[in-house]
Each structure stands twice: as structure tokens, then as C-alpha cells.
Amino acid sequence: xxxxxxxxxxxxxxxxxxxxxxxxxxxxxxxxxxxxxxxxxxxxxxxxxxxxxxxxxxxxxxxxxxxxxxxxxxxxxxxxxxxxxxxxxxxxxxxxxxxxxxxxxxxxxxxxxxxxxxxxxxxxxxxxxxxxxxxxxxxxxxxxxxxxxxxxxxxxxxxxxxxxxxxxxxxxxxxxxxxxxxxxxxxxxxxxxxxxxxxxxxxxxxxxxxxxxxxxxxxxxxxxxxxxxxxxxxxxxxxxxxxxxxxxxxxxxxxxxxxxxxxxxxxxxxxxxxxxxxxxxxxxxxxxxxxxxxxxxxxxxxxxxxxxxxxxxxxxxxxxxxxxxxxxxxxxxxxxxxxxxxxxxxxxxxxxxxxxxxxxxxxxxxxxxxxxxxxxxxxxxxxxxxxxxxxxxxxxxxxxxxxxxxxxxxxxxxxxxxxxxxxxxxxxxxxxxxxxxxxxxxxxxxxxxxxxxxxxxxxxxxxxxxxxxxxxxxxxxxxxxxxxxxxxxxxxxxxxxxxxxxxxxxxxxxxxxxxxxxxxxxxxxxxxxxxxxxxxxxxxxxxxxxxxxxxxxxxxxxxxxxxxxxxxxxxxxxxxxxxx
Length: 580
What we know:
Number of strands: 15
CATH topology of the largest domain: TIM Barrel
Strand content: 5-15%
Low-confidence stretches: none
Shape: globular
């Protein structure tokens, strides 16, 4: 692999190269300390709020920046000024690119990847062949538990192949929409991205204009030429690995076409069946009289008119799923939570553990976002992240929180901690320490291979502690990397309701956990929900956006969500949980 682009400009691009260098160094046998240093640097660069490229071209000496030594500074300088690094290329020349992919699979790591590479298993395809042939057990470090974890990791990876996480799809859509609107075309978003699904097969965009118009815009504005022939409708292209489909539509039916392409197919089929029962026909361009082939649509006025014709209220795209959606809609639609309903963020990390920004900087950014309260919830020690906080560190952090609070009187700062649930269901910190905190979040980060019954019992045991307030990312999934761990979700949520423990929908795009099915159950069982960013940087506060999207997919209203409430109500609930 070589760099075909010019000088790298964005922090994301630089961070990707530093991460790649760290991976290659690990595979080459570099020390754990050195590799960890580069991994931390990649994370810091990704979250840095100034463009490093601008600092480098201005002649800034990066060795004055904490965590950047002479070697890394030189590496970044090469990337920014030349677009390539001889050091990186030397590693690429001798280490198979496929082995890096193998190493990144959950449960592999550098040591096992080197073992696999020495055995000729130097790509994901060859690893899958070895799993099918059941030959991995001959290698050191590949017992049944590791092989099981590998199978699960590969299954999660396959679920993302050829698809995109929602934020990547959003970025691609924004870019294409801006180009189309700049050309004077009317644009509608459709498909998976409009329904805000976690994994997007492709970005669908419907717009006015001819196929030739769309081709001209895509050809002139996008880094890669569209696929197929000029005049094709739709126009298909790939943008930063995201599949995009742009459909040309007559202006008078652009809304109807967008509705049809928003789908999903099972939902459109249910609407079509309902139309037939009323002597109508649902087509991609609207609703027609079934008895008059070739007749003009009986609906105008966009999507609401389609639903009027079918005797239904307009259904928000996030709710559209299948025939059951129509049954639920007839019983009454909720007033879905909106992004502006969120009043505070109860899950974020700082440089006290594995965050990239200081406590003060995170509070300042949250205050600027208009939040009335935040919780600082750095990790407890057993997570294994840098600087997991023990009792002494939490008390030292409390002193800093008090000082920052004085400077931000309009944003209440809660002392919190994201505490690990240990394998037996006990917590990583003693009760006397938890009792000093304002808010206790609990999470599973390790021993994820338990059976469903053991994992469920483990989490319920943790929630039984009256000092616990919120259960975070209940299934532990990492989209494209690790599937959800097995839990009996109805049993788990019934226990949460009984203990009055809130359950988080985590806005990190790789998590989006708990999913829409679990959120619907929360709604049915009366479980309070917290929508959180799980921010590890200032930019990460924006994760709240995707968390709210998932809450909407779960049919949640603002009243279902704890952090849409004023601080006094949240404070009262915390006190009630502790019996005060």
C-alpha cells in the first residue's frame, strides 16, 4: 500500500496514519510501551481541536506538545509536507496489509497476529479458511474460547462489509447534498440514512433535474467518477468508502419517490397491502386508483398526503419498519424526543482517564452547547484504560470539579464515575467510595464471553446496589468489531424497572447501545432512559445527536428520557434512588 494522495491536511487523516504505524510497529515486535505511546498519540490527534497541518506548515515545533517526541514530529511533518512517510512505507513493504486487518479483529492483537502470520494466515480470508478447516487449535494461544471470540468478531465484521456507520454516511450525504444544492437542484434524503439506522447500506438521495445534470454535478464535485454510463438513473458513486445512490425525479413527485426509497421494503409492502384493501395502489410516485390503470396519482402535497389517503397519521421515518409499525401507529403515535429537548449530558470522560480534553475544557464545551448540567464520569481502575480512577484520584478530581464549578455557575457539574461490573456482579469500587459520588454509572467491559444466563445475572446483581444510578451500553456491542454479548434483555429491563435504575442509549457511533428494540421495551416497562454522548473529547459531545436518533427509533418521548428534565428533577431522582 502506498499513499496516492497529496499532503495530508485533516487531523483524521493524520491520526489514521499514526494508528497504522502503531499497528505495523506492533506486528514488527516493537515494545508495548512504544506502541501504546503511538496509539495514544493517534487518539489525541483525532480529537485535537486545532488542525495540526496548519501548525506544521506554520513552522511550529511539535515536540513542545505533550506526547509528541522528535520521531513522531518528524513523521507528521513528512505526512503534511510530502503526503507520505519513508518510515511508514518501509513497514508496509515487509508486513502484509492483510495481517493488520487480522490484528484488529476482536480477540487477536499483535502477538496472536504474529503467530498467525508465521503460519501463513496473513489475511482475513485466510483466517476464515483456517476456521472452516478447524486448524487454528494447532497454534499457541488459540484455544476454544479464542476461536469462539474470533468467529463472533468475524460475524460482526461481515455485518459492516460494504456498508457504513451512520456518521460516515452522514458526512458523505452532507457533501453530496451541498454539491447538488449548489447546482440549484431540489434535494431529498431517503433510505437507511433517513431512518437513522446504525449501519447504512447506502446513502439514497432523490433530487430534481435530469440524470445528465446529476452526472455533471457528481463528475465535477466528487473525488471519484460515478460508476456506469452517463445518463444512467440512478447515478452511483463511492465517497470515502460510502456507497451513494442519486435518483433523478420529476419535481412534482420528488417527495413520493423519496418516501418509496426510504422504505424499508417490509414497510412499503405493508402500506401497499393497506392501499389495496381500500381499492388503491401504492406506487413509487404516489397513491393511485387501482381501477384506473395509468391514472394520475390521487395524492399530492408530498408524504402526508400518502398517509391521508391510507387513513393513517404521518409516520416519522425513524419509526418505519414493517406491518407492526402500522398497527402501532393506529393506536397512537408518540411525540418523539428532539435534539433540543436534551438538557444535560451524564456520561463523558476527561484526561483524568482516557479522554483527550481536560475537565475544564469539557465543561466549557458543554456549557457552550447550552447544557444546564453535566456529569464527569471517568473510568474506574479495572477497565485497564490509562489513569482509571481509584478512591484517592476521585477525591483529587473532586477538588478540580469544585474549582471549575465556580467558573461555570450556570452548568451544574456532577461528580460521577463509570464503574466496571466485575465478573461476579460486584463493582470495581467500594460502596464507601461510591457513596461520595453524585452519580454512579456501571458498565461491562470485560469477560464478555459469558452465557446469557450468567451475563444477565451479573448485570442484575450490579443494579441491585442502591448506589447505582445508570446502566451503560448494556450489550457491550461494537458495530463492525464485536457483536452484542448475550443478555436476556426483557429480564434485564424488568430488573432495571424494579430497581429504578436508568438504562443508557450510548451515542458513540460504534455502540448505539441499547438498540431500538431494547428502547421500545424500556418504554413499555417504564424504564427511565439516559441518552449520553460517552464523549472522550470535545468533538465527542456531538455523539448526543446519534443517541437521540436511536431514542426516536425506539418510540421515545422527552418524558421517557431522564436528561430532558431540569436539573432539580434529576437531582431529586438521584436522592430518591439513595433513599434520602
